[in-house]
Amino acid sequence: MNRFWRRCAEAISFQASIGIATAMALTLPSLALAQDYPTRPVKIIVPSAAGGGTDTYARLMAAQLGESLKQQFVVENHPGASGIVGADIAAHAPPDGYTLLISANPALVVNPALFKKLPYDAERDFTPIARGVISPLIFVVHASVPARTMAELVALGKKDPGKLTYGSAGSGSTTSLGVRMLEEATGAKFQHIAYKGLGQAYQDLVAGNISFMLSDYIVVLSHIRGAKVFALASTDRSSLLPNVPTLGEVGYPDLMGVHASFTVAGPAGMPAAIVRRLNAEVNRIMKVPAVQARLESHAMIPNFETPEEFAATLKRERAMWATVIRRVGIAPDQ
To answer: What is the spatial distance between Cα 79 and Cα 87, in angstroms, rounded to a whole number?
Structure first.
C-alpha cells in the first residue's frame, strides 16, 4: 500500500512539474514582450481638439513615456462627435500596444448612455490601462454677463430662458452635462453651443460670443487671473483659486461629483504584460516631483489605480452618468 501511495505522489509531482513548466513557457514570452516594448513609435489618440485638458495631459504623458521607455510616443488629435471619432479609431486598432487612447469622460463612460448606436462597445472594445487624473470643473462667465455668483447666473437663466449661451466640448461632455444638471436642479434655461474642444469654446468666451461655460481649470486659469472672465464656483476647492467657493457651498451639492477625467486605455485584447508595464509607468511618472508640480499647476489630481481597479471605476461611472442622463431628460442620440 505504501508503494502505491508513493507512486501516486510521484505521479502528482511529475504532473505538477509539467504544469509549472507549461506556465513558465507561456509567461516568459509575455514578460520578454513587455521588457522589449516598445520597439517602434507608439501612437496616442486624443479624441478632442488640441489645447484642452485631455490634450495637455496626453502630451505630458507622451513626453514622459518616451523618455522612460526610450521610444517616441506621438499624440494624434481626432476630435468630433463627443469623442466618438477618436475612440472608434483606437477601438479598432491592432491590440499590440502601439495605439493608445487618452480620453476624457465621454468616450468610455458617457456615450454608451447618450447614443443609441456607437461604432464601438465602450466596455468590450477597450483595455483599461490607467485612470490617470481627474480635474475639478469651474463655472466662468464673460465680463459682460451681470453675474458674479452662481445665484445671479441662475436668476438670469430664469428671467430670460435661453438668452444666455454656454459652450462645451460636446453634448456628451461633463462640461455640458454639468450645466444640464444645473438647469434640472434650478429651472433655469440656457442655450447650448457645442464645440470640438474646450479650447475652441474658451476662445469664443473670451471674445464675448458665448456667455459662460463649465470648464476644466487649464483652459481658463490664466484669463481668470487677468480678470477677462470671472469664476463663480468650482466642483472642488483648488489652491490655484482659493477664494472660489465650491458648488456645494453655494447650494448645489449634486454637482460636486462632476469632474473631468483624463484616462489611458487601449484596444481590447492587449497583452497583459504590456498593460501592466504601461500602468506601472504612468503611475510612476505621476509621482515624479516635476510632473506632480505640472499636474498641480493644472488642477489635475493623480489616481493610482491598477488596470482592474480602473475597470471597476469605469463600470461605476457608466452607471452614474446613465442615471444622470435619464434624470435630466437627455434623449439618446441628442
So the answer is: 9
pLDDT tens for residues 25-35? 544 455 555 67
CATH of the domain at 123: 3.40.190.150
Buried b (16+ CB within 10 A) or exposed e, 302-324: bbebbbeebbebbeebbeebeeb
CA atoms within 13 A on the CB side of 93: 24
CB atoms within 10 A of CB 31: 13
Based on the domain organization, do 86 and 142 belong to the same domain? no
Q: What distance in Å separates the CA atoms of residue 280 and residue 274, rounded to the nearest whole number?
A: 10
Structural contact between residues 88 and 107, judged by C-beta atoms closer than 8 angstroms? no
Do 312 and 123 touch, CB atoms closer than 8 A?
Answer: no
Residue 286 near residue 302 (C-beta atoms within 8 A): yes
Angstrom distance (rounded) from CA 162 to CA 209: 15
Host domain of residue 174: 136-255
Same domain, yes or no, for 130 and 264? yes
Same domain as 228, residue 191: yes
**pTM for this prediction:** 0.82
Residue 247 lies in a domain: yes
> Do 264 and 125 reside in the same domain of the chain?
yes
Are 38 and 67 spatial neighbours (Cβ–Cβ below 8 Å)? no
* pLDDT tens digits, 74-121: 999 998 888 899 999 999 999 999 999 999 888 999 999 888 889 999
> Phi and psi of 135, rounded to 5°?
-140, 130
Q: What is the CATH number of the domain that holds 143?
A: 3.40.190.10
* 154 in the same domain as 100: no
CB 218 within 8 A of CB 135: yes
Residues 6+ apart with CB under 8 A from 35: none
- DSSP letter assigned to residue 107: I
